[in-house]
Specification:
Blueprint (H helix, E strand, L loop, with lengths): L20 H6 L5 H23 L3 H14 L4 H13 L3 H14 L4 H14 L2 H14 L4 H13 L3 H14 L3 H7 L10 H7 L2
Helix pairs in contact: 2-3, 2-4, 3-4, 4-5, 4-6, 5-6, 6-7, 7-8, 8-9, 9-11
């Protein structure tokens, strides 16, 4: 099954010290330049991880996001990428742990809502998946692939009317959805449905 990877918005090891104030003042653990280099390094790994994920190289995405996490254990963006990539690579349970960790670290990351929706979808937990797609749409009502994701869930659950209503909504946002719906097995049984054929120009 082909999954559409969407706008995956994906986020220092700070010098920690329990020394007294005078010790901190006279002997800083990390200079500003070192901090900048650390931040730049982890951002580079996150960027590479995003690129690998979008190109379908899930192992590379996992590897690069893990490096970013090793640099900064609170890197929510890296956890989100690694979680989605891990789930796409077949380990949905581990992927869900990472995406939940990303949510705990940054509950306002809308892209991670999408990643969580996809991980739940890959697990077959369709109601949970739909809830996270809906959370995306609360923030971004025209998010094409969350609208389409809900359409596929209704299709998989056998609610044909809602599936086609949501599919029509997705197509109105982005007509490229037509080609995807025509190919994916979510809508395979709809290929003789007149409304579906009109929607996707079959």
């Amino acid at each position: 099954m082909k999954y559409i990877l969407l706008c995956i918005c994906l986020f220092a090891l700070l010098g920690c010290s329990t020394d007294t104030k005078s010790q901190q003042d006279t002997k800083p653990t990390t200079t500003a330049n070192e901090q900048a280099k650390t931040t730049q390094g982890q951002d580079e790994h996150v960027t590479v991880a995003k690129q690998a994920l979008s190109s379908g190289n899930y192992n590379k995405a996992i590897e690069e996001s893990t490096i970013a996490i090793n640099v900064n254990a609170n890197n929510a963006e890296a956890y989100s990428i690694r979680g989605f990539a891990t789930a796409l690579n077949g380990d949905t349970a581990k992927g869900l742990i990472d995406t939940k960790k990303a949510y705990d670290l940054d509950p306002n990351n809308v892209a991670n809502y999408y990643n969580m929706a996809m991980v739940y979808k890959l697990q077959g937990q369709l109601n949970e998946s739909k809830q996270w797609f809906e959370k995306v749409l609360e923030k971004d009502p025209s998010n094409t692939w969350s609208v389409y994701g809900i359409a596929t869930i209704y299709a998989d659950q056998g609610d044909d009317t809602k599936a086609l209503d949501w599919l029509e909504r997705a197509i109105k946002i982005d007509p490229s959805v037509k080609a995807v719906a025509a190919e994916q097995n979510h809508f395979e049984r709809f290929h003789n449905n007149e409304r579906f054929k009109q929607l996707v120009d079959l």
